[in-house]
Amino acid sequence: MRRGRFFVRMPAESMSKDDRKPNPSDSPAPIYRRIVLKLSGESFQGSQGFGIDAETVHSIAREVKEVSDLGIEMAIIVGGGNIFRGTRQKSLSIDRATGDYMGMLATVINGLALQDALEKQGVVTRLLSAIDMAQVAEPFIRRRAMRHLEKGRVVIFAAGTGNPYFSTDTAAALRAMEIKAHVILKATRVDGIYDADPEKVPDAKMFERVTYLEVIQKGLAVMDSTAISLCMDNRMPIIIFNMNRPGNIRRAVMGEKVGSTVTAE
Question: Whole-model pTM?
Answer without folding.
Answer: 0.86
